Automatic annotation (TrEMBL):
Protein name as catalogued: Phosphoesterase
Domain of life: Bacteria
Keywords associated with the record: Signal
Originating organism: Sphingobium lactosutens DS20
Organism lineage string: Bacteria, Pseudomonadati, Pseudomonadota, Alphaproteobacteria, Sphingomonadales
Signal peptide boundaries: 1-23
InterPro entries attached to this UniProt entry: Pol/histidinol_Pase-like
Length: 493
């Protein structure tokens, strides 16, 4: 292996030392698995009293999930998660319920599970839309911050119902308000095309709406669920098509367990990236009721994981989500991924997942991919086998946020193309930098199919596994900085 490959590989494994004090927190970063969409008993249903229509309905605790916050935290640790977000959805005056009852349970669960970084948040009822995971930074303002945001802006919190809460401009007002807070939350769109009526026929949320969210508050609206939850859903007598399908997607199915916005090569995710957005994708459980209890879900971390390269610290995990140091995976197909892109003639000038590399148009680039495939049985009892990994590239300048015609598979790696280095698979490729800004990303699967096909109700999700890495971004410069002596941060562990 060339010297630059050895250096990059050492960085990917976290083997190099960083001597400066400012770099020390960065040196503590490693891949941490998490789930930002988990429900508890405080995802209540509401009982309307016909004799008192002007009286706020009473919440039915456990109405939409029977799991306590502590049980979710315990299961998260059992299935290998390092961080989790408690995200109950709302209803009339739900902000008061969260404040009075969910918050104390979060505090108790943090004490009972000290090795899990537990975030307080909610599944925000998006005005004029569906839902988004709202994740609050740790600190003394958490409890009151959530009550303030939910009571002001959540679509269903007001009683009597406020028609203005059901309008999309209200969401933009919410993002502007959040952007003015001294400690900013993170917001990730959940199941982005669950209401679509066909392929590319968007429902409550179109890609342009996400572009507006990001433009309004780029440090808050940072991405979307690539792989939604409810992956254990199966057809049952009396269920409609949506509730018997993976993800509860009734209009247009998931593809390999991932939302069509992400799974379609050159589709909406690539369209957003092609419009210049740094837009991060994730994977979650959306846990309400476990499949063994008759539900449609897996436990947090049992099937889907969002891996963030961060120090074991709440603030750095949120920073990793914001910066896109993330990959999403189902079925524990892999548990480590790094993509390093370097200038071929200056390997010290490099970037990894979530970072930006300055390159000259047409410059030679060296791409190195490290993957650690499954080493032990997953929650389905199998040790999945990686079939292939795709190196994908696209450029900025897409005609719309809905698609990017420049996105293509640069190279497909199979077992004959990669080499083994301990538990890792290593893949390398040389390519020319594009003539305008762009991005490089990777995906992989245990399937032999080239592109993920629409999921069929009742299929076994454990036999259809994928991972998606978030991009390395390319920025065009006519002149670029000289190669630095060593990168400023490691990119793996």
């Amino acid at each position: 292996m060339m010297l630059r490959s050895l250096l990059a590989y050492a960085l990917a494994l976290g083997l190099t030392s960083l001597s400066t004090a400012s770099a020390q927190p960065v040196a503590e970063r490693r891949w941490l698995a998490g789930d930002h969409h988990v429900h508890s008993v405080y995802s209540a249903r509401y009982r309307i009293d016909p004799d008192r229509p002007d009286h706020a309905p009473d919440p039915i605790i456990g109405g939409d999930s029977r799991h306590s916050i502590l049980l979710n935290a315990q299961k998260a640790r059992h299935f290998g998660l390092d961080w989790m977000v408690a995200t109950d959805h709302g209803g009339p005056n739900h902000s008061a319920l969260n404040h009075a009852r969910a918050w104390p349970d979060v505090v108790a669960a943090r004490q009972a599970q000290p090795h899990l970084i537990l975030f307080y948040g909610m599944e925000f009822d998006v005005p004029g839309g569906e839902h988004a995971s709202l994740i609050l930074p740790h600190g003394p303002a958490e409890r009151d911050m959530l009550r303030d945001l939910e009571s002001r802006f959540a679509e269903r919190d007001a009683f009597p119902a406020d028609p203005a809460r059901d309008q999309k401009p209200r969401m933009i007002a919410a993002l502007r308000y959040m952007n003015g807070l001294p400690e900013k939350p993170v917001l990730i769109a959940n199941h982005p095309s669950r209401t679509a009526t066909g392929r590319g026929k968007w429902g409550l949320h179109a890609p342009d709406e996400f572009r507006l969210w990001h433009a309004t508050a780029p440090d808050i609206a940072i991405g979307m669920e690539g792989a939604p939850g409810h992956q254990a859903a199966r057809p049952k007598p009396g269920l409609d098509n949506a509730h018997g399908s993976r993800g509860l997607y009734g209009g247009y199915p998931t593809m390999g367990g991932f939302d069509q916005m992400v799974a379609t090569l050159g589709g909406a995710w690539d369209g957003l990236l092609g419009q210049g957005l740094h837009w991060t994708i994730t994977a979650t459980s959306d846990s309400h009721g476990h499949w063994s209890e008759g539900g449609a879900d897996f436990w947090p971390g049992e099937y889907a994981k969002t891996w963030v390269f961060a120090a074991p610290d709440a603030a750095d995990i949120l920073g990793g989500l914001r910066q896109g140091r993330v990959f999403a995976v189902t079925g524990d197909l892999i548990d480590r991924l790094n993509v390093s892109v370097a200038a071929s003639d200056a390997p010290g000038r490099s970037a990894s997942t979530g970072e930006t590399l300055d390159v000259r148009p047409g410059e030679d680039m060296h791409v190195i991919i490290w993957v650690r495939p499954a080493q032990s049985a997953n929650g389905g009892g199998d040790i999945p086998v990686l079939d292939h990994v795709d190196l994908i590239s696209g450029v900025v300048g897409a005609p719309s946020a809905e698609h990017n015609p420049t996105t293509h598979v640069v190279r497909r790696f199979t077992a004959r193309d990669w080499r083994h280095d301990g538990a890792f698979l290593v893949m390398e490729h040389h390519m020319k930098a594009p003539d305008r800004p762009g991005y490089i990303r990777v995906r992989g699967t245990n399937r032999t199919e080239g592109e993920p096909s629409p999921d069929v109700a009742g299929e076994n999700p454990w036999q259809d596994l994928w991972f998606y890495g978030n991009p390395v971004y390319l920025s065009m410069r006519q002149s670029v900085p000289a190669a630095r002596a060593s990168p400023t941060q490691p990119v793996g562990d």
